[in-house]
Amino acid sequence: MTYGFQLLARDGAARTGAITTAHGAIATPAFMPVGTAATVKAMTPEAVRETGADIVLANTYHLMLRPGAERLARLGGLHDFMHWQRPILTDSGGFQVYSLSDLRQLDEAGVTFKSHIDGSEMHLSPERSIEVQHLLDADITMAFDECTPFPATEAVAAASMQLSMRWAERCRAAFVARPGYALFGIVQGGMYPDLRAESAARLLQIGFDGYAVGGLAVGEGQALTFSTLEGTVPHLPADRPRYLMGVGRPGDIVGAVQRGIDMFDCVMPTRSGRTGQLFSPRATLNIRNARHADDPRPVDADCRCPLCRHYSRGYLHHLFRAKEILGAMLATWHNLTHYQDLMASLRAAISRGSLEAFAAEHARLATMGDIDPV
Amino acid sequence: MTYGFQLLARDGAARTGAITTAHGAIATPAFMPVGTAATVKAMTPEAVRETGADIVLANTYHLMLRPGAERLARLGGLHDFMHWQRPILTDSGGFQVYSLSDLRQLDEAGVTFKSHIDGSEMHLSPERSIEVQHLLDADITMAFDECTPFPATEAVAAASMQLSMRWAERCRAAFVARPGYALFGIVQGGMYPDLRAESAARLLQIGFDGYAVGGLAVGEGQALTFSTLEGTVPHLPADRPRYLMGVGRPGDIVGAVQRGIDMFDCVMPTRSGRTGQLFSPRATLNIRNARHADDPRPVDADCRCPLCRHYSRGYLHHLFRAKEILGAMLATWHNLTHYQDLMASLRAAISRGSLEAFAAEHARLATMGDIDPV
Questions:
Q1: What's the average pLDDT block by block, 10 residues per block, for chain A (374 residues)?
Q2: Is A302:A281 a contact under the CB 8 Å cutoff?
Q3: What is the pTM of this model?
Q4: Count of CB atoms within 10 A of residue A126's CB?
Q5: Cys-Cys link to B267, which of A173, B271, B275, B364 (CB 3.0-4.6 A)?
Q6: Between chains, do B39 and A326 touch, taking CB under 8 Å as contact?
Q7: All domains of chain B, ordered by start, with CATH?
Q8: Which residue of B has its CA nearest to A293?
């Protein structure tokens, strides 16, 4: 399948469509479960697919450290390795270099850092990041950029963005085009609208298959995320997918879709699942809370996931109290189903032209709080 | 379904047949995965069933401490609670009282002990153990006995066995008979054939729906296990199932089936799975070993489990190195499949009258060692 993006419907700034890649199609707006180390934690790939996911994200930084990009390529690439024959997007590794490693040096060439696993010295540059993502066989490769700190002065944000744009050009040059494979650029510029516009213009000049908005979800708050999107998305071409990196909570996703975003990724549903935080339309439950111990009802009576179809809150509470792996498995499954069903509802609402009503109802439910105790 | 045991074929002392219970049938010889806290660790019940298991074992001691027997009964009993609508056997709680708790007092009445979870004082007696297993809704209830230490002098073993026999009588009296539900007695007597014979005779006098051999798999070694079975099984009635508790490794199971045992349980396949020990006909692999890191081959090319159908040794090695939950999930699934396929092969060999040849080939393969490195 060649790479492409078909728009199917619009509703205000929101769009629904389909991205096609070498490993299949992705309905948008799409949520990508995070499979950091070539596994969506506590899930089989079959279960990930059952939640409704068309694509997963894997982390270049983690995989280049372990098991190593060249080894992974010898083992047939990421799709075979993790038994996921559908689309995969890899990040560039940049974000984790800044957040996880002991960073040694950053200059025009790239970054030298120490592995957080064994302390060994590693190097990442635009060229090496693209090469690693090629070795992993990512359907969608992300440009390697600098992670602008937040907060940052305009001068710092500008210098960081300009470095990222020079790197974006090197990424484009390093990327080996193949049918069905795509390279996305990343808009930077901190919370400064002019810098965002400049960054978008520069990326368009270089030319990418999709455009991500980076440097958000760094603690700036939902209002600033949304206003930054409003200042950025209009500078992006309508005929390319738009990806808001690292976002977010369900309400963040609804608001970003209303502002024209097509793709999302976040550890929220998986990480929360492992700690016993369960999403429902009305509330986020902490299933470890004692009030669930005797509750025969499902977490969410309207949810189609195995947890909600087959098990009580009392059972899930027990599993978490007993530190049983099945607790993490079922809670993750539920949360990912909740996210994917939200995306399906958003796609349907856009198709019907009723996104505004859907978003209002979504927000209203979220204020109701959990069902009454038994 | 009423409780019963149908013998279908014999081969020497070995037999194959079917136990029927309120929640369905169990093909024998049967291996029961251990679901200590109302979950077979790292497995969904659907996955447990896919391995071929007809029945699981749950631990009375753990469940009476957490979530509590009365609470579990209010939540609908163990089948609904853990979403396993097939047969369940519960142990009596005795073994864990001796091995896990801070034992306060043992007398004719029963045992008083401190919970290993929160130190609270608990009591178990023959009557309470039977009541708890009733509350759990176990298809097969085990008599509450004393765990005879090993090694023990003949006098100690005799006194312990006689206490267990008096308790067995109280268990029989306390058990509420319902169609499809069974109570098993447990032969004790340490490694002393005369005591084993006396214990068996006493249990037969009381009358049980099945007979377990207890007090083995306590470090006595395979030769002594087998000779004790040879001295015990002939005293048990042919028309009732025989259950060897807590056994064991695949070779132990083959030998015990040859000596007339019908049922087994052991944490070996599940616990080993979580630590990266993988069973194959030729060897037990430690998948964490570096030699597997680049190996594109499955753990066992002849195995039908998802791990062996879809993933390389290199991937499983990676999952264990990265401490990913999916590693425990897939390795457990594999090990349980290996065990269930062994049981299916044993049943088929008995039906064909070729158990001796099967056992010889099983032993021969086990000496071969793992396949050569790539």
A1: 96 98 98 98 98 98 97 98 98 89 89 91 96 98 94 96 98 98 98 97 98 94 96 98 97 98 98 98 96 98 98 98 98 98 98 98 96 88
A2: yes
A3: 0.98
A4: 25
A5: B271
A6: yes
A7: 4-266 (3.20.20.105), 277-366 (no CATH)
A8: B67
